[in-house]
Amino acid sequence: MFKSLLALLLALTMASPAEVPSGGVKGRVFSRLDKQAVEHAAVVVMQEARKVASVETNDKGSFQVAGLPDGQYVLVVT
Prior knowledge:
This protein is an alpha+beta fold and about 80 residues long. It contains one helix and five strands, in the order αβββββ. It has one helix at about 1-15, and strands spanning about 20-30, 40-45, 50-55, 60-70, 75. The strands form two sheets. The protein has a three-stranded antiparallel beta sheet, with no helix packed on it. The protein has a two-stranded antiparallel ribbon with strand order 1-4. The protein is elongated, with a radius of gyration of 21 Å.
């Protein structure tokens, strides 16, 4: 009985892999000078001095990056 229960617990543990919490970031990029949306700006997501992801803003200056593991990031926009 004990061996069957142990085997069942091991099987359940192996069948449900640990989920890594993830999130994302989204926003809009505006010009500091005229307060207009910036189209096609490069948005780079950095963590500890390494590039994690990059996207380009759309025609309304909006961007979205999904699937980032929990943590602290720096956004660099050019």
